Structures are given as structure tokens and as C-alpha cells.
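hey team, just a heads up i'm posting the complex here instead of the shared drive bc the drive is being weird again. everything in one block, sequence lines first with there labels, then the predicted structure for the whole assembly after. its two chains so it's a bit long, scroll down
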Amino acid sequence: MPDLHLTNRQRGIAFAVPKIRSAWRAALPLCLELSGDRARPLPELGEVDAYVLNDRRIARMHADFLGDPAPTDVITFEHGEIFLGAETIARHAREHGHSVDAELLLCLIHGLLHLNGFDDLDARRRQKMHRRQFQILEAVRGTL
Amino acid sequence: MARMAHRLNPALEAQGAVTFRPSAAALDDWATWCAGVWFPVLSPFLRRALEHARTGRLRELAELDLELGDRLNPEAVRRSQSAGRRLLNAAGIPRGDRNLARFAGLLEAERAEGHLLVVHALRAAAFHATDPLAAGSYLYQEATGGLFPNHPRLVGECVEGALRLERPAPPVLRVA
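-- predicted structure starts here --
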């Protein structure tokens, strides 16, 4: 089972990082129990590193390398890096009626599910993935 | 060599000096730089960087990048980082390559500094350059930027000279 590391590299949004890290670690076995249709690097990874960036930084990455200049909430690479956009997460938290901590945790779970073979490239798969990530969030958010 | 160097760094003529910055006696300085910087520091770092880049071990590559910063003087660090970041963001990447994007993320997360040599290694891996081509094209950038931007023949000779010195001597055959 991989070690999970969460590092906050921005100051604009306040997150309860140690609590989120613990809840994310609690979510890992649940994510590993579910597998999607695609390749599953997660069980083989030694580590997963997640970095919370400000939106300016994640938008620059998104624009330069993925062809989309808009900020995004989460970018996951199959080698075990997850990059998260803090202001977008805060905006989604308001829209979903969550705390920012729960929304960040949801994005981290989303990243783990991507690494375990889930994708959100079409409506059906997106719906399935979203259902799973909310189930896992509900199972572990009590620790937040 | 020149073609690969331009492929890996399309804006190399505009880059200027990186770690090699000669005085008036440029050719002597090139030999001194080779002996003091290229052979003991940059060449072994480039070999390790290529290995990590080819196998997608970017955590190790980011650590190597930080380690390289500790081995160069502060002025060279500044120029090397500036050239590396410019190259990372400005040059096109081969379709399907994800390592440059991953490394850009590690830069944004301040896990790496973005030295030219490391970005060069990532691009060399993405374009499937062999070790000698990757080394030669890196030397070409250093020589062009610091020495003779308008003298490709002299640059070629400098690069060839450095590569020749690096190659192991052929074994001596003994006839019984």
C-alpha cells in the first residue's frame, strides 16, 4: 500500500492539513477495494504525493502542458503525483455546500480513484466515479 | 549534434551563457570549465538525470535537481534555473509525453528548481536521444551560449573535444 504525502504550497485558503491527511489515509483502503476499467497503478506505487497549489500555479501547468488555460481543482499523474488548485476547491466547496476541508478530501479521493483505474471521460463513467468518491468521502469525513 | 541541440532547445541561440561564462581567453576557459565543471559535476549529473527521466522517476530527478543547485556557484545557479524554466515553458513537447508536465508541477510545488541540465535531460529522454547525443547537445548549448554564438564550427570543435576526452580509452590489445 503506498505512503500518502500531502503538502500545502499556498497560503490563500486555510486547510486543516493534518486532519485531511489522516482522513485521506483512512480512505486509501476503500479506494483500493474499488477498481475502474483502466490501468491501476495505485497498488504498485510506493508513494503518492499531493500538493495544494494556488490557482495561478495550477492554471499555468494546465495551460502549458494540458492545453487548457483555466484553473482546475485536481490534476493526477499516473506515477503518483496529484496537484490541487486551492481557490477552485474553495469555490466548489461553496457550490456543493461542503467545508473546504471536505472538498479537498474529495479531490484527494478523486485522485486515488483515478490512480485505481477510474476515469471521468464520459458521462456514465463520470457519474460512476462521482458516486464512488462521495461514498468514500461519507465513510471517512467523520475524522475531519 | 547541432540539429539535436536545436531540437531540444529551439531558442538556444538566444539563451546566453549558463554555467560556462568565459573571459577574453575563451578557448582556455573552455578547457578549464570542462576540467572543473563538466567532467566532475555536470556530466555525471546528466547521466543520472537521463536515467531518472527515461524511467519516469521524477521524485529522484527533483532531488537531483536540488543537489545540482548545491554544486554550482550562485551566479551559475541563477542562470541555469532561468534557462531551464524558460526551456520548460517555451519549447514544444512530443505528443503523449507527461514527464515534462509532471516536472512543471514539481517546480510549481517548489520540489525542484528547474536547472537547464535537468530540463534538457527530460527533453532528451522525450526525444529518445542517446547518452552521447544528449551530452553533446548539452555541451553545444553551453558552448554556444558562453563562447561562440555565431561560430558553429568552433562550437563543434569544442564539443567534440570534450566528448573525446570523456570516452574511455580503447583497450590495449596484447599479442602473446
